[in-house]
Amino acid sequence: GYGKPLTPSVATERITAMSGQTGLLHTGHWVTYGDLSAGATTTTKITFAQLSSAEISDYVATGEPLQVAGAFTLDGRSAPFITEIQGDPSNVLGISLPTMRLLLHKLGINWTDLWTSK
Asked: Residue 106 to residues 39, 80, 89, 99, 102: CA-CA distances in angstroms?
């Protein structure tokens, strides 16, 4: 699977495999509102720097990659290892906010309506 690695050996294996590579992250989104529903998949392309063995072992030693899906995160210690992102960065963090805005619009809900209680 591609969830959280949970062990240092799995994290090391995943990060080593991603080093110097480009990968695709696909996230499925589904919104239900009453009897209405809408869904979409968002894909973001991520390119990783070529990492040294020392960088990989030092990063794994922080424990961070054990607790994040894919063994990396855009807003943590691994951020400098990501050299390029094509597509929606919020998708990499777990949910595409632009996709959610469009899905809500399909259901007749304005994104800005979520900012206030009515």
From this structure: 10, 37, 22, 11, 6
